[in-house]
Amino acid sequence: MDTHISDPVVATKLTRTLAAQASAVTYEALPEPVRELARQCVLDYYGVALAGADDPLATILVDELAEAGGAAQASIIGHRVKLPALSAALVNGAIGHALDYDDVNLAMPGHPSVAILPGLIALAEQRNSTGREVVAAFVAGYETACRIGMALRPGHYDRGFHATGTVGAFGAAAACAHLLGLDAEAMARALGIAGTQAAGLKSQFGTMCKPFHAGKASQSGLLAARLAARGFSSRPDLVECEQGFALTHAPDFDGQAALAAPASGFHIFANLFKYHAACYLTHGPIESARALRERHGVKPEQIARMTLSLDKSCERVCNIPAPTDGLEAKFSLRQTVAMALSGVDTASLAAYSSETATDPALVRLRDKLALDFRQGWPQAKGELEVTLGDGRVLRASHDAGIPSSDIAGQRERLVAKFGALAEPVLGAARARELRAAILGLDRLADVGALTTLAAL
Q1: Residue in 367, 418, 446, 419 with CA at minimum distance from that of residue 102
Q2: What is the mean pLDDT of residues 409-429?
Q3: What pLDDT is attached to residue 12?
Q4: pLDDT for 244-284, tens place per residue?
Q5: Which residues contact 346 (CB under 8 A, 6 or more apart)?
């Protein structure tokens, strides 16, 4: 690994520069589309967290942390208990990622909102912060996470690190430090404290530890900001220094990529929301399979063989060949393609179960699929070729890495998704009240209104 860094800013001031950028974010300077996307991220996060609140991992974490006790500082989504803010960040982050239905940004590459919002909202609840303060802090954290992610990609993720857990900790720290009003130097120390805690391994995909990574990232970021506010020391150049985060975690570190402004001005414009309850890298293949079914009326019994072409990076992310339960099915290209071709609703949480994963018809169909991993493809693109028994060959492709340009239309899709996820937990009336509060976040004098509505 080449550890020589020639640019003086990258070599000695990258962390400080990112900290200064984050601390300088103000609500008033944010364009309205950025504020709207921030509200959409909050809406989507609350929906998926409410739906994940009864996951077995939630019971384990709540029982463990409630037994440990502590000050009742922050609410747990979908539960009656209040826990210390650090504990709430961990639980709410884990349940928000439990269903793998939360948003994505390929700059990290990972899940930004679920790593940033739990700690930020726990802190905001404790401090009685306004909605505008939360929006500004969230954007500061989101942009920081994406900038650091850009500097580490692709090697960091390809090496086996789960960026939601690692890079997400930096984003959470920046967001919480912003809410605390820390200056640039203290923000840099917060990033350093977060970086020395950051962890998460992709080998844990398909287990409870994957969503645990998101919770730990949010908890670590919140702790980092709070310690920095108290004067806790850390290197203020932790991202770029010798034996620092980048040079130990990324074989192709490019600090200039962190400093480059995205074409749209903000990384949040590239946020990708999920409309299938599975790993995001299965979404291009799912959409390709749906297209073949809907356009050509393809039936599973007609299919002789199939080939799915996609980026090489997917091989070690969502390539469980023979899943046996719902969680593993979310990380199986073969399973999710078979489900889509068979007309199974891949947006439905109930579709991911042991029964579906071991359904004989789906198993037969998925076994007909060959995977063709290619170097240099768009990371979220899938191209499916299906050969039918009569010799016809049909093809469809979809790139799920292209964000929607219709922000207003995207809001409507997210409102529908939120309703489907939140209403079974809260009831229709309370879910509508929570939705209205989130979409009116900028007008909230105290974000505690959200946490109250989302707790049982």
Answers
A1: 418
A2: 97
A3: 74
A4: 999 999 999 999 999 999 999 999 999 999 999 999 999 99
A5: 276, 277, 278, 286, 336, 339, 340
Task: Calculate the alpha carbon distances from 312 to 158, 261, 388, 456 in Å.
Answer: 10, 27, 26, 43
Q: What is the pTM of this model?
A: 0.93
13 Cβ neighbours under 8 A, 6+ residues apart: 237
Tell me the CA distances in angstroms from 384 to 94, 221, 278, 308, 381, one per residue in order.
Answer: 33, 40, 18, 5, 10
d(CA 405, CA 409): 9
Render pLDDT for 295-316 as a digit per residue (tens, 0 to 9). Answer: 999 999 999 999 999 999 999 8
Mark out the alpha helices in 153-237 (DSSP H runs). Answer: 155-158, 163-179, 184-195, 209-229
Measuring CA to CA, which residue among 307, 419, 321 is closest to residue 363? 321
Q: Are 214 and 164 in contact (CB under 8 A)?
A: yes
Q: May I ask the CATH class of domain 8-273+409-454?
A: mainly alpha
Cis, peptide link before residue 109, omega less than 30° from 0: yes
Domain 280-399 class?
alpha beta
Q: How many CB atoms lie within 10 A of CB 9?
A: 14
- Dihedrals phi, psi of 83, to nearest 5 degrees: -130, 170
Burial code of 88-109, b = ≥16 C-beta within 10 A, e = fewer?
A: bbbbbbbbbbbbbbbbbbbbbb
- The 10 Å Cβ neighbour count of residue 439 is 18
Strand, helix or coil for residue 181:
coil
C-alpha distance from residue 311 to each of 35, 188, 267, 344, 369 (Å) = 33, 35, 22, 25, 16
The residues with which 126 forms a beta bridge, in sequence order, are none
Domain locations along the chain: 8-273+409-454, 280-399
How does pLDDT run across 227-240, given as a tens digit for each residue? 999 999 999 999 99
Would you report the helix, strand and coil content of the chain in percent, each value rounded to 5? 60, 10, 35
Task: Please state the separation of Cα 233 from the chain's center in Å.
Answer: 29
Q: Is the pLDDT of residue 8 over 70?
A: no
Q: Give, rounded to a whole angstrom, the gap between the first and last alpha carbons of the chain.
A: 51
